[in-house]
Amino acid sequence: MAGRYSGVVKSWNGSKGYGFLSSPQITGDVMFLRSHLPADAKEVRGKFLEGKTVNFDLTTGPDGRAQGANMQITAAEGDFVAGEVKSYSERHGYGFIMSSSLKGEVRFNRTDLDALLPGVDLKGELVICKVLLMPDGKLRAEKIMFQSSKIANRLKAGGMMGFGKGGGKGGFGQMDYGMDGNGFGKGGFGKGGFGQGYGMMDYGMDGNGFGKGGFGKGGFGKGGFGDDGRDQGQGAQGIVIAYNSGKGYGFLKCGKADSDVYFKSQDAYQEGTIVSFTLKINKDGKPSAINLQPGISSGQTYTGTVKTFLDTKGYGFISVPGQPSDVYFNKDLAPAALQNGSLVGKSVRFTVQVSADGKARAEQGAQFY
């Protein structure tokens, strides 16, 4: 097979180095590998790549299946693009990025990045950034991020190079899509480990935390995973990416897990099926799913109750009867009269949009009452 095609990336697993794309010119999904991506996009994560339009050649893999090769990621003005730092002057406070998705170099300023370690050399580092076309026709970068946490931790001031002894009493405090104010507990990262547990996380732990012992001096501490030393699991939703009917197991893509989620079931699941389940972390640190059931689907209307709402952050979560995973909603969905009040406990009727990793989000037109 040979030729140039156009398609859209359906999924990308950066930790395993493979993904799938679809094209109206080809029947069925097409697999591609990290080596098929442009050199300046080798470390991108799924959230960046999924949904991107790409041009590619079609080849045959060792197993005889079609594979995409020589991929080029297209971009429009205002899109985030992957690139490589061509040059950077710490003394002058600016540098230039080159991207295979663009023609010409993109200027950036030191202030577009988080604080860096003194004397760091950015040349050759992989980034993603939003690109703007200036009135003079030149390209300007903003919102620059490193393509992986590994790169960021190596270059950024305060990167998690080691936990040290201290950590302070305050823990991490409040984080977007993370802690709700309970933080990482009194112990911080110091000698006391993570202190009293994780507390409640949005898109994360549900309040059971990791137990009172935290990670602490003695490994996972007294509590380990919960008060009885076991991972109690959390509600989650994901999309089936593979299922072996002969062996009765498969894998899910889930936004709450850093890697593919293993599940075992005698019920046959088609790729692309949305399911909800209980997400557990095994002793080897790998995620698995149990108690699978049909998940919340795009375009469907549901009725639920506002479970949590962070007014200062402008978002919250809705619980749906019979579903273990909550639905994200933005503050703007609520009527103006309710936005500054307490939304917790309010009933809401809404239509859902599901992202590529299975996360459910309430769409415009939600009715609160």
UniProtKB/TrEMBL annotation:
InterPro entries, A to Z: Cold_shock_domain (IPR050181), CSD (IPR011129), CSP_DNA-bd (IPR002059), NA-bd_OB-fold (IPR012340)
All residue ranges annotated as the CSD domain in the record: 4-73, 235-294
GO molecular function: nucleic acid binding
SUPFAM superfamilies from the UniProt entry: Nucleic acid-binding proteins
Domain of life: Eukaryota
Descriptive protein name: CSD domain-containing protein
Protein species of origin: Polarella glacialis
Organism lineage string: Eukaryota, Sar, Alveolata, Dinophyceae, Suessiales
